[in-house]
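ok so dumb question maybe but i'm new to this and my supervisor (M.) told me to 'just get the structure for LysR family transcriptional regulator' and walked off. so i did the thing. is this what she meant?? sequence i used:
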Amino acid sequence: MIRELKTLMAVAQEGTFAAAGNKIGLTQAAVSAQMKRLEEELGIALFERKGRAATLTQRGQETLKQAHVLLTLYSTLGASLSGQPATHRVNIGAIASIQRSLLPDALARFHHTYSDCCTRVVPGLSMELVNQVDAGELDMAIIIRPPFSLHSDLRWTPLAHEPFRLIVPQHISGDQWRELMTSQPFIRYDRASFGGRQVDRFLRNNHCNVREVCEVDELEAIVKLVAKG
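this is what came out, is it supposed to look like this??
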């Protein structure tokens, strides 16, 4: 049943049997067969089948949470039986900027306090990481705050507050942000990211028309591009 539970988690994340199969290396028919077998073994309907989408039923959502717990325990089973101390794994999602700033010190303190735990850091965009937490694939994620309310079974904890900064090449003078943004080529923070959406909302709310030349997700790349003029 372990294999079927892993497939269940993939379907929950990807939304369709076909997409889940592509992710874990199975055909759509194989995924469908595994889910049918799992439903028969559990005696419940896991999905509401509407077209190609595979939406979890209420019982399916409950089963998904239990599957995450079981798979986490299963991953530590070998260590316990071999006489080694059981290791608890914590799966943490983190956007790129966090991995270079807050995360290293936080992980060092965590491992000093909880020496019997190991951690796995999963990189990704904020939206991707939220979905993985919601699907039970991650225990937590450090991201930019979403511009929408989280599901009732997810909890948000602020860790830091950072203002957005407007940066210009050193040879550009002036301190009026609107004039600078409208007169100079603008490198946009990727609108697919939560941070980029906040920037886009700021521009629209302030009726600021920029001369966009590039859209980038990586903050360090933006800084280097601005430095190049």
